[in-house]
Amino acid sequence: MSVREHIVIDTRHGGPYDRGMADSYYRRGRTPHYYMADTGSSPRVGYKDMTPDEVEAYNAGYDDNEEAGDYKEWL
Asked: In the chain, what are the domain boundaries?
């Protein structure tokens, strides 16, 4: 878990923060989403069905990875 200003961010695999980090890591664009449980093996929740806090968590994950500069090396 991570605390960001006014919300507690769940960093679980498949959650909004995790998906934001993954999208940045793989250099995909910002497309807020998350999975109800594990990535790819549970229902996907898209932007239109996310709460403002979930979107903020996604963006925090994306921004944190951008700041860290941790990207997939495609050889």
From this structure: 2-68
